[in-house]
Amino acid sequence: MHGAGAADLLTAAVAALVLVAIAGALYTHRFGLSHLLVFMAVGMLAGIDGPLGLPFDNHAVAVHVGNLALALILFDGGLRSRWAEVRDGILPAGLLATVGVAATACGVAVIGHLVLGLAWMDGLLLGAAVSSTDASAVFAQFSASQLKLQNRLAATIEVESAMNDPMAMVLTVGLIAWISSRGATPDASSLEVLTPLLAQQLGLGVLVGVVAGVICAAWIARLPIRDDHDGLAALLMAALGLLLFAVTNRCGGSGFLAVYLAGLLVRHRAERVAVMSLPGLNGYTWLAQAALFLLLGLLVTPHEVWRLAGPGLAVAAGLMLLARPLAVVLCLAPLRFGWRDQCFVAWSGLRGGVPIVLAAYPVLANLPGAWKLFDVAFLVVLLSLMIQGPTLAPLARALGINRKPE
């Protein structure tokens, strides 16, 4: 009975936290704030420094839940994207998701070295963790802001947010392996560790995503699905996305990239069923985001984060105002993007759950100083959602790139 009672209390506590977070998130749209902030804030209030004082320091659980939630969010994002609208953004998004991520990581490494006194490889590890934009944050903010951007610009931002997670994860995992085996001093052989891992992750991710997407679309199109069958169509899509994510990871590829590409192909080749499943699938993605950010809020110890408020603010400002814009110019200027579009792409690089999840990897690896990297990454995400999110729509109007609805 004692075990059953504890389970009931835990279930009630989690359900209550989700209810409070969702109720609060419904009001944040009035202020242009991301609902992800509310989930995170509720988690922090329930955590060790909050009124409830719930102790939670299981980074492995947070990483596992985070990976599953992000996989579901990316598959949903692929299903919501029309190929005709996405294809114009493939090249610039691909550059931003690879060269742009690496350039951003290098820029943050310089800032971390100057502000926090980090060794160069530790600075690169921090940069790799916070270098990718977050698909869930970008999709949610675009939906809340009701922006009407030119197709190429919108596709570039959305596709980049879905494609750059593999690059950031590969850099993070590769750098952890390097630091664990050889210390925090870089040399030429660093590339010998990272390059094959990157090629394997991206190559297998693309291959499995395309092949599985074509096969799954052909199978789904032949199923006797006439309506959503009381939500079964959405459940089918959710199970398909999670299965593809797990299989791709098991094969050594990037599950994140695979599920997004597969979602795109399923939407393109089995559009009727894909569109039918979206309303129900939207509920699953909301639940996934709520669980992820509640866990991340619980995982953070605010009084420890507060000690790094000054350096964390400097790193966040350097990322938003220097590292990210320079990476965008490097990638988009040769493709003849106008300066207004480049400014908006640079500012729309919202950070969300991905950087915090990636910053938990060094903690799991027991690297020296890993807690500092985790706390700084949390501050970067918090400031990005608080500053960049609410100002996206006003910036689009000021730059004259927000098209009026017809």
UniProtKB/TrEMBL annotation:
Residues 18-397 form the Cation/H+ exchanger transmembrane domain. InterPro entries: Cation/H_exchanger_TM, Na+/solute_symporter_sf. It is a multi-pass membrane protein. The chain crosses the membrane at residues 6-27, 36-54, 60-79, 91-116, 197-221, 233-266, 278-300, 312-332, 344-364, 376-396. It holds the Pfam family Na_H_Exchanger. Keywords: Antiport, Cell membrane, Ion transport, Membrane, Transmembrane, Transmembrane helix, Transport. It is found in: Cell membrane. NCBIfam families: PRK05326.1-2, PRK05326.1-3. This is Potassium/proton antiporter.
